[in-house]
Design brief:
Number of helices: 20
CATH topology of the largest domain: FAD/NAD(P)-binding domain
Helix content: 25-40%
Bound molecules: flavin-adenine dinucleotide
CATH architecture of the largest domain: 3-Layer(bba) Sandwich
Shape: globular
Radius of gyration: 25 Å
CATH superfamily of the largest domain: FAD/NAD(P)-binding domain
Mean pLDDT: 95
Structural class: alpha+beta
Low-confidence stretches: none
Number of domains: 4
Largest sheet: 7 strands, mixed
Distance between the termini: 54 Å
Length: 603
């Protein structure tokens, strides 16, 4: 088989679907190569989308014109707005998904996307011509492409471990993908090895539900996507239970059979998502650890045991599970396992996710050293947009650290690199008061609109909201009741916009949607902090707006320390701001670089 495409995407996981959909919606002929139809946007681990910082990223993907928000709205079975008692900067939506429905939804969208062809094959190599990518070679054919986006997840040379047994595999019963790593290494791209893991799945009917505590979801479900009017679906509760002293004893007594502790696993695992054996070893004084029992869907018996990810042998897993309250009789449907896989250290990428070694070859998702569906989706969308923009000769889309968590994620990856699976946290964003869940339309919709991924009506609504919120705030601060402005009334902790409308029928009569009022309230209540953070952003922008030419000759700058020169030559920062964030480049180096840039401009 031989076919020609503008863009070929390798992989139809969370990064691949966003990349393929964005590129095809932008008018390109796209081929998306994947191993199976049943695994499009599959969730191989937890059945949930969103969470702290991750929820914000789903909303960002949605505002940029991606699909993840719509998919989770169509497939959720449990919803919670996290941190409701805290400030708006850290509030974030999280939803449990019906895994099968999520995959089926994404498959339908992919299959009906004009200009998008799904190819069931295994990619084994990448070809180039004159330093630019030219084709993907599969087992079943050769696929010509002007740009390629690699989103192969955990499949590259994947090795699955349970106890001291291991075998090649991409995840569950899927094959490992061999060939791509070797092909990229020949093109000068280096690879590394990472590891992740997953907990056992339990049979619903074998759990004693009377011994575990229900965790109901919120009644008020706020859709993830701007395009969803309301979510009206059956919801189910999750439950919580705990490991016991006996669990910890079993684990301690089995560490010699753990692939992690016996040295079988060489790849570095996610520090922030540790296995239960890691938790027991690292926190010996903790009497118990939480275990969330999360249904994997409405029509399945599978329960995901969130909190006991493990690669211990099967017989030990049985004992661990049975030592947990409510799980004494639980039947394991699938044992937990760990997987090691190849990734490509992301310092080898430009900030628009194109590899520095090969023109028009983009990388997104787990292959860049990240972990998580949302992290993958954000990168997939940016890579898809930038592959198209590159083919059209347009400037790339690079989101700022002050604009999006997705911007923080990509900047961290390409500037600092990562040697362990990277997941997003609110603490990674210095301007998190600006990167809120409630204002993604304001921050990002114009990019989605400019790229043709957000339609006119959604964009117009976001502009109307912006204008109306500003108008109302002005009105509130110029309208006085008993000597106090309405703005002051709303700024008081105990008052909400609903209290304001109850006392101001004129405002209530405007019949504005809730999200308009939420924005008014947040901007009034946190206005001082927001302004302060915006002032910091202005200072940050001064450095970010000073571009460093791609061909800048660092060798010729006198006074730069050797370490700094080496790092700058490796990363090739696009701005002085990015240069200042490279580990090992200090403020004195930045001053020297600044003088050299001035000199070059004068010359
Ligand atoms: C066992 C396990 C545990 C995990 N645990 C966690 C966790 O605790 N927390 C967390 O946040 N994330 C976890 N993850 C990671 C999460 O699943 C990924 O971060 C996310 O799915 C990455 O998305 P992706 O699109 O990069 O890759 P994936 O979703 O893995 O998709 C890869 C796609 O590429 C295709 N593919 C691969 N190679 C080829 C090839 N050569 N040719 C054609 N198609 C190919 C596959 O068919 C698949 O469609 C875990 C993953 C696994 C496997």
């Amino acid at each position: 088989m031989h076919s020609e495409f503008d863009i070929v995407v390798i992989g139809a996981g969370h990064a691949g679907v966003e990349a393929a959909l964005a590129a095809s919606r932008m008018g390109m002929a796209v081929g998306c190569i994947t191993l199976s139809a049943d695994t499009i946007a599959k969730m191989p681990c937890n059945p949930a989308i969103g969470g702290l910082a991750k929820g914000q990223m789903v909303l960002e993907v949605d505002a940029l014109g991606g699909e993840m928000g719509r998919a989770i709205d169509a497939a959720m079975i449990h919803f919670k707005m996290l941190n409701m008692s805290k400030g708006p900067a850290v509030r974030a939506p999280r939803a449990q998904a019906d895994k099968a429905e999520y995959t089926a939804y994404m498959r339908r969208v992919m299959e009906s996307a004009p200009g998008l062809t799904i190819i069931y094959d295994m990619a084994v190599g990448i070809e180039t011509e004159g330093g630019a990518v030219s084709a993907v070679v599969g087992r079943g054919g050769r696929y010509g492409a002007r740009a390629v986006i690699l989103t192969a997840g955990t499949f590259l040379d994947g090795l699955m471990h349970i106890g001291l047994e291991n075998r090649p595999g991409g995840r569950d019963d899927e094959p490992a993908a061999i060939g791509i790593t070797e092909s990229l290494e020949k093109l000068g791209i280096t690879s590394g090895r990472l590891k992740t893991g997953t907990p056992p799945r339990l049979a619903k009917d074998s759990i004693d539900w009377s011994r575990v505590t229900p965790q109901p979801g919120d009644e008020n479900i706020i859709p993830f996507s701007h395009a969803t009017e309301a979510v009206d679906r059956p919801m189910v509760p999750c439950h919580i239970t705990y490991t016991s002293g006996q669990t910890h004893e079993i684990i301690r007594g089995s560490l010699d059979r753990s692939p992690l502790y016996s040295g079988c696993i060489k790849g570095v695992g996610p520090r922030y998502c540790p296995s239960i054996e890691d938790k027991v070893v690292k926190f010996p004084n903790r009497p118990r650890h939480q275990v969330f029992l999360e249904p994997e869907g409405l029509k399945t018996d599978w329960i995901y045991a969130n909190g006991i990810s493990t690669s211990l042998p099967r017989d030990v897993q049985e004992k661990i599970v049975r030592s947990i309250a409510g799980l004494e009789e639980a039947q394991i449907l699938r044992h937990g396992y760990a997987i090691e896989y190849d990734y490509f250290p992301p310092g080898q990428l430009h900030p628009w996710l194109e590899t520095k070694a090969v023109k028009n070859l983009f990388h997104a998702g787990q292959v860049n050293g990240t972990s998580g569906y949302e992290e993958a989706a954000g990168q997939g969308l940016v890579a898809g947009v930038n592959a198209v923009r590159s083919l059209r000769g347009e400037e790339p889309l690079v989101l700022g650290r002050d604009e999006a968590y997705v911007g923080v994620l990509i900047d961290d990856l390409v500037t600092r690199g990562t040697s362990e699976p990277y997941r997003m946290f609110t603490s990674r964003a210095e301007y998190r008061l600006l990167l809120r869940a409630d204002n993604t339309d304001r921050r990002l919709m114009r990019y989605g609109y400019e790229n043709g991924l957000i339609d006119e009506s959604a964009f117009t609504r976001s502009q109307t909201k912006l204008k109306t919120v500003a108008e109302i705030r002005e009105h509130l601060n110029n309208t006085f009741r008993e000597g106090k402005s309405l703005g002051k009334f709303l700024r008081r902790r105990e008052n909400s916009w609903r209290d304001l409308l109850a006392s101001e029928p004129g405002l209530a009569g405007r019949n504005l949607p809730d999200d308009f009022w939420d924005a008014v309230e947040i901007e009034e209540k946190y206005g001082g902090y927001i302004e302060r953070q915006q002032a910091q952003v202005e200072r940050f922008r001064k450095l970010e707006d000073r571009p460093v030419p791609a061909d800048f000759d660092y060798e010729s700058i006198k006074g730069l320390r050797t370490e700094s020169r080496k790092k700058l030559m490796e990363v090739k920062p696009i701005s002085l701001g990015q240069a200042s964030r490279i580990p090992g480049v200090n403020p004195a180096d930045i001053s020297i670089l600044l003088v050299a840039l001035h000199r070059r401009r004068r010359e």
